[in-house]
Amino acid sequence: MSSYQLTRTMNKHAVEKSYTCKHCNKCFSDRSSHRQHERIHTGEKPYQCIHCGKCFSRSSNRRRHEQTHTGLKPFTCKHCNKGFGRSSDCKRHERTHTGEKPYSCKHCEKGFNQLGNCKEHERLHTGVKPYSCKHCNKCFSQLVSCKEHERTHTGEKPYTCKHCNKSFSQLATCKQHERTHTGVKPYTCKHCNKCFGQLATCKQHERTHTGEKPYTCKHCNKCFSRLSNWKKHEERHARVASLKLKEHDQCFQQPQEPAAAHGGEKSDMLLSLTAESSSHVESFTCWVYQEEVTSDTCIV
Fold first, then answer.
1. Which residues neighbour 238 within 8 Å (Cβ) at sequence distance 6 or greater?
2. Rounded CA Rg of the chain
3. Which residues have a Cβ under 8 Å from the Cβ of 289 and sit 6 or more positions away?
4. Class of domain 185-240 (CATH, top level)
5. Homologous superfamily of domain range 17-78
6. How high is the pLDDT of residue 164?
7. pTM to 2 decimal places
8. Largest CA distance in the chain
9. Domains 17-78 and 185-240 share a fold
10. pLDDT at 85 exceeding the cut of 90
């Protein structure tokens, strides 16, 4: 951290936080930040796009959105010449080239290239979930996750493919779909330079080079490189456990008395034979769980 950043951080701590959110009691040193934060709770969006009427809770977000209408992108990545409407977006993008991760989790020191991602990650440690669904009150640690969940209630699909007009509830899913039209594959394997349209697919492929298997079965500790294979494997354990439990219950189930419809003489004979056989059995072992039981527990 530079001396300027250190001084700025110390000044932030020194300033009195006299503005308190009336919804969650979080404190702020300036009125503007306080008002912006409270809009997270109230849902207020006072800033409206002059082109399409879309509303925003922050004026900076509105200005950034309006640039999507004008096409103005004055900031250019020095590595790939991609254009951006804001300087901060350009710098954030450049970190994907340099690998710089200036933000670290204060709990596990994991690095991030965006401050917002770092804060979201830290909530995994603290368990804080400040965003609530307005339909079912389910809580989320990320605002974007909350909004995506709310669309499962409303059925809203605000993102449309510009090639076939298919609609999506998530922006990332829409972009992935559009690549099926354009053939763009922005993710490259760092071992063999093979290209992929999805980051998850690229990472999955790279494990074929490294041999990494990050998914571990909680029943037998077998490891997998793919999440889907790990889930299928654990489902097999669940099915086997369910089958064993069913067979175990059948093994210990008491025999029912023969129905009278089969004839009284046969019923009396069967009961007599069963009682006689059970008197000679002191103990036996359940063939499912290898548990020893007595004739009083189960009659064979």
1. none
2. 32
3. 244, 248
4. alpha beta
5. Classic Zinc Finger (3.30.160.60)
6. 94
7. 0.44
8. 101
9. yes
10. no
Answer with the residue of higher pLDDT: 220 or 16.
220
pLDDT in tens, 116-134: 889 988 988 998 998 999 9
Are the C-beta atoms of 24 and 130 separated by less than 8 Å?
yes
Annotated domain spans of the chain: 17-78, 185-240
pLDDT tens-digit series, residues 141-170? 888 889 999 999 999 999 999 999 899 998
Residue of 163, 194, 196, 169 whose CA lies nearest to 181: 163
